[in-house]
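Hi U.,

Before I forget, here's the chain from the pilot set. I'm dumping it here mostly so it's searchable later in email.
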Amino acid sequence: MFESLFAKYPFFRTIPAILCMAVIFKLSSMTGDDLQDLPQVWDKLAHFCEYATLAGCFCLWWTRAEWSKKIWLRILVIVILTLAYGCTDEFHQRYVEGRFCDAMDLVADSIGGLIGGSVYALICKLLNKFDPLPEPTPEKEE
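Structure:
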């Protein structure tokens, strides 16, 4: 459904990732008092879910056909991108009252990115198997 929209307007592929990063930034701007009722285990689960979602948004940057080639290289790029954004998130949290940098948050971010990218790749693989993309038709030369 979105492939035709993305083919016509490729810039739209980046919008979900930008929106997801904005939501993560807003959540990391919350002070420690705002999050005091959140147990530590839920914090790591929240990081995992946020970055798995971000990874899925990064995955949209490639077409479904592109996901049939070099899958693990694309997943590696996704994990690096999510880890890089996780580093900026942790740096930002250093300056928020009641928040601090935590290496375990980066671990949760990376695992979320890996799982999110892997699930997206698996879904693309299944879609390509059961609903193959049409072969491109050669253009007629006049």
